[in-house]
């Protein structure tokens, strides 16, 4: 086993030496034979993408065989050609200008381009489909730079998490077609509410660091810019079914009309995902649908999207103790039959894009999201007064504590408008003016639905609301961005103003419960330079400032005087990237300097709850690598690596004595930021063992992570190295475009590891106790998928 692991690690670092190849070259032009610089040339089913140079020329190195090349350029119709080569060949493309605007403009305002001084990674539909066998969207991003994913249930289905550069989901800005997905109050993104969203995604851009100006919560670790289904010219139908370990099922049906009368298109998807989970009782029952309709005019697009997801998930939120890792890794503390989370979220989006002239394109969107649901939990021996329930007198005995079941509800509405204007007066100059106004109405209320002692009649059934509070938030932003090309230098500038108003039920100056409000104003400037060596290679450097408001708990757990400050980040990025015929490579260095970053310190509020506190100075320094080498026509290697240093300059820990409420404080210098591994690496080696068949060996290494901010070695997540194997085969016959069979074997060496956890400390009678809890992940397991496309 050790030898196998050594060989797997060696494979990540030492791919085979390339062999001589046949070349295919050509030129990409428009109908007037004018060269198209920067056209995208893709080798279908091989995940090879290159760009044409300033003269429209391209060159590919391939082995002999039959290939299909797809060439696209913004504003032109995509063209495909098939070639069977046995010697050096020439294949030219002449693209026809589209008579309508392309879907790409819907998200272009918040995206980086190849000359933008921003660190980013693009994933297209084909890359996502390879691993889309039922696991949540974060797991499909696991092989991208600086990403660490986690799963409460241990198998990637249900509640999952993602961290990028050590920043959790509350610091990752997520938009779907430019519309914010992050919860307005908690600021997290919960992909469990939109199961199988990946099956309706056309492409994703991941911007690491502050990135370009976007809509929604501030990006402190990264941005995920998701674009859903775009125009497909031909009608299609697709059936996708997966079965796997832990009684995992995924059933997806997708259909589309193609382009009707060169003007209309309709697309739809229906999905179901079920799994028992690796952890005991950590089951998930997830359902979703996606419907989209579009009108394409000569100068405009009108598109409407409606999508929704429902989830019922048995709770595995608490993890397990350190002792239970060896006794029973699959243990779950919760035993109440209906200890579940239940939620539904409906999304409505309406987009209109208009080409006002050859130089000006306008884009606007209306959106509405309705979310509602609750989680139910059993509580033992609770004080009835805490639930506004009077004591019960039975046989002359007063009972003031009881076992009970409660539901904590959330009912919210999120709606608003986004817009952008793209002005290109010259080929070397581009302006974008964009922004959004959004409102959030959130209703929080809690109910006791059963108590052992609560009613005089002794029936024990009731429905008692004991907590009720509302929140309202407005979020306005406006940004302007410009790109100016001076010969080989591109200058990038981006300025954003953001205004936030938040009304919530909290504490006034005296600490009494009352409706409170906060108003915050942020200015987020960004600037950068890119130097282009040629059409395929450049270097870049940028400086960006981001600001972010505290979340709901930060507000409600404090009064006006103790309210935390907003967080501030200055992000410096510099890197080199190149795209050759068989090699793509990116190397990036970053320095992220935080002021008033909010972290857990152990400090409690007036009712004993944990609160986050500002730390004056902290930082992240790192270098990232991202590359892909097409060694042979049927053999490739892709890898990423991140080396980083993540520090808090001074950190004070608070520990309370539960016996006498005394306080112990410890001050630390230059401690490690929790959940920020100094090493993250991934590898994927793929080999075409037979025609249309591939085997891929996929590896992920994550260095040790600290569970708190004290840097104590007794409170860590151990490093882990996990390997997967993916086998895939695709074929076609009359009437069926493609039949695809994929087997994904996760954690093939059955490594015992945990990718998330936590730590708590407390004093009792002067004695200090510290404990850790963990989220164990599944040992060897599989997912087997059959995909049929018509």
Folded structure, characterized:
This protein is 4% helix and 61% strand. It has 790 residues and is mainly beta. It folds into 3 domains: 20-95, Immunoglobulin-like (Sandwich), CATH 2.60.40.1120; 103-227, TonB-dependent receptor, plug domain (Ferric Hydroxamate Uptake Protein, Chain A, domain 1, Beta Complex), CATH 2.170.130; 236-789, Maltoporin, Chain A (Beta Barrel). The longest helix is centred in the first third of the chain and has 12 residues, at 2-13. The chain is globular.
| Major sheet size, sense and barrel closure | 22 strands, antiparallel, barrel
End-to-end C-alpha gap: 43 Å
Task: Tell me the radius of gyration.
Answer: 27 Å
Beta-strand percent range: over 45%
As for the number of domains, it is 3
The number of helical segments is 5
CATH topology of the largest domain: Maltoporin, Chain A
């Amino acid at each position: 086993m050790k030898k196998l692991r050594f060989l797997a690690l060696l494979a990540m670092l030492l791919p085979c030496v390339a062999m001589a190849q046949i070349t295919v070259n050509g030129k990409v032009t428009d109908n007037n034979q004018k060269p198209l610089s920067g056209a995208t040339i893709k080798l279908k089913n091989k995940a090879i993408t290159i760009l044409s140079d300033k003269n429209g020329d391209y060159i590919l190195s391939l082995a002999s065989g039959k290939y299909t090349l797809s060439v696209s350029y913004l504003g032109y119709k995509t063209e495909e050609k098939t070639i069977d080569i046995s010697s050096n060949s020439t294949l030219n493309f002449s693209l026809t200008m589209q008579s309508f605007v392309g879907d790409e403009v819907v998200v272009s305002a918040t995206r980086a381009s190849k000359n933008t001084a921003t660190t980013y990674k693009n994933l297209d539909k084909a890359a996502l489909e390879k691993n889309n066998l039922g696991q949540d969207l974060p797991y499909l991003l696991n092989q991208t730079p600086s990403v660490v994913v986690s799963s409460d249930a241990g198998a990637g289905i249900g509640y999952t998490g993602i961290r990028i550069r050590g920043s959790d989901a509350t610091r990752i800005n997520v938009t779907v077609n430019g519309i914010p997905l992050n919860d307005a109050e908690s600021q997290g993104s919960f992909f469990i509410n939109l199961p199988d969203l990946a099956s309706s995604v056309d492409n994703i851009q991941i911007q690491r660091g502050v990135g370009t100006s976007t809509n929604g919560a501030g990006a402190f670790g990264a941005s995920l810019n998701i674009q859903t289904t775009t125009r497909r010219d031909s009608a299609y139908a697709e059936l996708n079914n997966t079965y796997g370990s832990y009684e995992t099922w995924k059933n997806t049906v997708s259909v589309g009309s193609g382009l009707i009368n060169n003007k209309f298109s309709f697309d739809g998807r229906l999905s179901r995902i079920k799994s028992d989970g690796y952890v005991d009782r950590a089951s998930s029952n997830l359902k979703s649908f996606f419907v989209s309709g579009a009108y394409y005019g000569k100068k405009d697009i009108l598109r409407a999207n409606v999508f929704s997801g429902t989830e019922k998930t048995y709770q595995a939120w608490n993890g397990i103790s350190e002792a239970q890792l060896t006794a029973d890794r699959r243990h779950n503390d919760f035993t109440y039959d209906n200890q579940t989370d239940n939620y539904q979220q409906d999304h409505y989006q309406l987009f209109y894009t208009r080409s006002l002239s050859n130089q000006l394109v306008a884009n606007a969107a209306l959106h509405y999201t309705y979310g509602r649901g609750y989680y139910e939990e059993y509580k033992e021996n609770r004080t009835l007064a805490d639930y506004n329930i009077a004591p019960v007198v039975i046989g002359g005995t007063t009972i003031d504590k009881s076992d009970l079941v409660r539901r904590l509800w959330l009912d919210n509405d999120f709606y608003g408008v986004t817009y952008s204007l793209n002005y290109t007066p010259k080929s070397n100059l581009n302006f974008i003016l964009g922004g959004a106004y959004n409102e959030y109405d959130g209703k929080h209320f809690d109910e006791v639905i059963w108590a052992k002692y609560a009613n005089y009649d002794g029936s024990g059934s009731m429905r008692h609301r004991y907590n009720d509070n509302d929140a309202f938030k407005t979020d306005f932003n406006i940004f302007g961005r410009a790109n100016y090309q001076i010969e080989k230098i591109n200058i990038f500038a981006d300025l954003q103003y953001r205004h936030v108003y938040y009304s919530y039920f909290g504490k006034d100056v005296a600490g009494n419960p009352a409706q409170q409000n906060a108003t915050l104003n942020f200015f987020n400037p960004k600037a950068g330079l890119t130097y282009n060596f040629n059409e395929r290679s450049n270097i870049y450097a940028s400086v960006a400032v981001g600001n972010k408001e505290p979340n709901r708990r930060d507000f409600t757990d404090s009064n006006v005087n103790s309210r935390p400050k907003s967080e501030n980040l200055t992000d410096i990025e510099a890197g080199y990237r190149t795209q050759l015929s068989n090699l793509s490579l990116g190397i990036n260095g970053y320095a992220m300097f935080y002021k008033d970053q909010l972290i857990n310190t152990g400090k409690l509020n007036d009712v004993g709850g944990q609160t986050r506190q500002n730390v004056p100075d902290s930082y992240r320094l790192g270098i990232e690598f991202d590359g892909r080498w097409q060694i042979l026509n049927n053999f490739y290697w892709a890898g990423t690596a991140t080396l980083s240093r993540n520090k808090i300059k001074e950190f004070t820990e608070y520990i309370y004595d539960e016996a006498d409420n005394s306080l112990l404080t410890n001050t630390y210098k230059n401690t490690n930021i929790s959940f920020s591994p100094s090493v993250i690496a991934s590898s994927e080696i793929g080999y075409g063992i037979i025609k249309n068949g591939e085997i891929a060996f996929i590896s992920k290494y994550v260095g040790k992570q600290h569970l708190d901010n004290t840097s104590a070695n007794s409170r860590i997540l151990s490093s882990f190295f996990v390997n997967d194997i993916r086998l895939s085969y695709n074929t076609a016959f009359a009437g069926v475009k493609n039949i695809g069979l994929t087997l994904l074997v996760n954690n093939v060496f059955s490594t015992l590891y945990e990718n998330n956890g936590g730590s708590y400390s407390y004093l009792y009678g002067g004695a200090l106790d510290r404990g850790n809890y963990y989220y164990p992940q599944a040992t060897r397991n599989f997912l087997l998928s059959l995909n049929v496309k018509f």
